[in-house]
## 1
Amino acid sequence: MRGLYIHIPFCRAKCGYCDFASAPGTPGEIDVFLGALAREASTYAGLAGKFSTLYVGGGTPSLLSPGQLEKLFFIISTLTGPLKAIAESTFEANPESLDAVKAELLMNAGVNRISMGLQASQDSLLKRLGRLATPGDFLKAFGLLRGAGFANINADLMCGLPGQTRKDFTDSIEWLLKLKPEHVSFYALEVHDGTPFSADGVEEEPDEAADMYEDGAAALGLAGFARYEISNFSRPGRESAHNLNYWEQGEYLGMGPAAASYLGGERRANTASTAAYLKAALGGDAIPLQYRETLTGKAKNAEKIMLGLRKTSGIELTDYIFIEFKDEISRLLDAGLIEKSGLRIRIKEDRLYVSNAVFREFV
């Protein structure tokens, strides 16, 4: 199992909460970026044909024009071969930048899974977030995707937003469930330094977000969704294979600015600067790295546990690792945060929202 991730660092406007490597880009800048991406892809020719999943994220990949999307998929095919041979290929989209032509193009290219941001079903909350799309835009885009033949669509929701009530969040879930998506992800608002929300003094509301999270989990459960990871819910058989590979410490290659990779036991991430990325790639130089590290011994096992505990099924450990972390595991059991069955440990379902308290034991 090996995943391929492509980061598209462009969007129409920066959302208030966004901490990803993204910024508005002109058509000319996107064309230059695609040339740089092709150069980077050529350096990984030895991995061609060895990918099981694809994930195109950003930024806003659906911002690209049809011609640019065709160039993008040609570049990707040099590593994956025909996309239709890939078990799972996900493409992120924003509703306002998706039309019928692009939906058909994605389907014909071999994409078989779409992840689209809704965030909330209330216009007022979307405007507060700085989102360009309305609920009506989402509804239209969802219909276009279904019309193009997509049978696996994820929608993102957020909780703990400024001015958001518990009823707002459950109303958003009920609104979304009427569309019958196959997968739902939701996340609590985090305010990071350097974001518009941070500059505006917006504060996180963890207690309110926790209540919304539990309300949402209950509503999705009643609708036939199973929670398989802290923030992810799916209908049977619709779990994200690409993300599961991350949580199971599988290998993956990331291309584009800020994209992370895990290959041959080494973790690394490209520079987050699009300008530095373009200069290096187009100049034939190695892409500058933001970091690189090789985890070994206890550090590698600690990461294995933290990633595995993100899944609701938890992780099965060897006797050796149990002994290595017996003090940490004992403290978490005594605190009632995890449960143990044989060699398997997992975070208790009613403690998933406070998972960071578990992960801190292994840092």
## 2
Amino acid sequence: MSSHRQFDVESVRQCFPLLAQQINGHPLVYLDNAATTQKPQAVLDALVAYYRNDNANVHRGVHALAERSTAAFESARQRVATFVNARSHREIVWTRGTTESINLVAHSFGGENLRPGDEILLSDMEHHSNIVPWQLVAQRTGAELRVVPVTPEGELDLDDFDRLLSERTRIVAMVHVSNALGTINPVEEICRRAHDAGAVVLLDGAQAAAHLPIDVQAIDCDFYAFSGHKMYAPTGIGVLYGRESLLDAMPPWQSGGEMIRTVSFDHTTFNELPYKFEAGTPNIAGAIGLRAAIDFIESLDRGALIAHEEHVRKLTESLLQQNENVRLIGTAANKTGVVSFLLDGAHPSDVGTLLDQQGVAVRTGHHCAMPLMERLGIPGTVRASFGMYNSEEEVHRLMDAITKAQSFL
């Protein structure tokens, strides 16, 4: 029996209350997980329990609620450290999400270390949030952006990576999994080659954390950024893993309360790691919700879950390829649960609207990856992206909806 059959998707679906609804008279088929995932009851319960029983600010009070809130908040940090195999909780910085994590590194590490003529190496498949922060810091410091192209299949061209990597490369910032194509990049190899050239590596893990085991020590990256809301946790909470020696040398990015040790009008001293990067009241409930999401993910058979998501993706691709009017975009050999496609003669947004009328939620457009779309010579795609609760039945619902949409186009 294949491993995807061992994953009880129907039991998992029962844990997600939002899925049990109808859209336009049809049962919801939610295939927009690369944008955000739905939340299991365990996460909803954790949020309610915190606000109902423990709500207080962290690190500042000696009363019982403050102590309980602080303990839960810091326990969540340690849980994340274990989840990504960080060496210490000091390497885990809370942010609002992947975007803020990348901005923190770009403006703090980049702003402190980049000089005119230095180079920042990106790829064609980056999300805008891993392009624009580097553009801004490059403009400020005189550094330059270099871009590794992707192949027509949507894979990183490692020969070009080696060609562009040089002694001038200070930072390599690349996506672990492409949000637009589902391509899984060879991140261990990227880090090895970058480090051999003397560069520091940041990985955008927004699309990877929910679908792949993450071991920052095995990958050997210097920074790793991801968001809670793409891995079944609340919105507004994110993580920056950073190598402790690098974080320790970096200046604060935002300033205010919590990130300080002493303040006078003449001088301020800053807090220890990781708190010097956490100005102001943090998203306490979000961190607690992220811990609950990690606990939920790891309560499942992770191998069976990965196999299930791969099976659903491959089934979708196989059925789409049987439709002569469909063109798949992104056919990398190593992928996770994203299927992007175009329907001949139809604008992606029109396809998305017709699918929504049948209860099928997909994403259309450039997916915040406009340079990638330009490289591929297309305006955008229809994107179906999968999570742990998507089933074979939903794949067939998608196919039926596409067939019906074709009859209107």
## 3
Amino acid sequence: MSKKNIKIEVQGSEITVINTNEQDYISLTDIAKHKTDDTSAVIANWMRNRNTIEFLGIWETLYNPDFKPLEFEGFRNKAGLNAFTLSPQKWVNTTNAKGFIVKAGRYGGTYAHKDIAFKFASWISVEFELYIIKEFQRLKEEEKKLVGWSAKRELAKINYRIHTDAIKENLIPQNLSKIQISFVYANEADILNMALFGKTAKQWKDENPNEKGNMRDYANISQLVCLANLENLNAVFINDGLPQNKRLLKLNQIAISQMKILLQDKSTNLLSNINEEVDE
């Protein structure tokens, strides 16, 4: 069960979102703070409402095969009575509900599945609910972009193995030391860096001394797609015995062409043209 805390800002309020079992849960405690500091009372008042109980029961019936319907009926029959009280923890313990997560401790609070959280937010304020939905959707779009970036980064790593195998078989003489072999690999990696980014790894590091990792960790998805292609092509060029300076020229030309297509931009200034730096 994976949990990851993320905060979204809604009208000046921070709302925590956690992901557990691949489902998003939003902090009702944070949402309630938009109305009052007595968050437990606000949540309890919402759960006393008969419409709320019916909504929670239907949601659990749809998504939770372990939900206890008889216990739910007991709550529904009492809902609305003056003496009736209900908390998220009592609801979970009695009905085996999974729509709520109650966390104890200093950084605890009550979390609800996004469907339930949006319903609670609408009870607090319809306007506030709309802003929460808007920010939550923005968060999901950002996560999709990150997943795409990670997939392309992994593809580049897989193709890097093909690239290094070609170097090992064709460019590394026998009896070289580990330091010499590392230099060969780094030198070839910089051929790709120069072709795509217009600078070596060292040049990038010198320009960005406070950044962790390397320039490829900061590449966008289009650059990673192009890099994966260049690694494959360079492996082919190495196997064909093409000299390094000619490989660099060809790879740079291919990178410029591919990036124009990927970015749908006709500008010739997307990449550094390094033709003048390399002897033909």
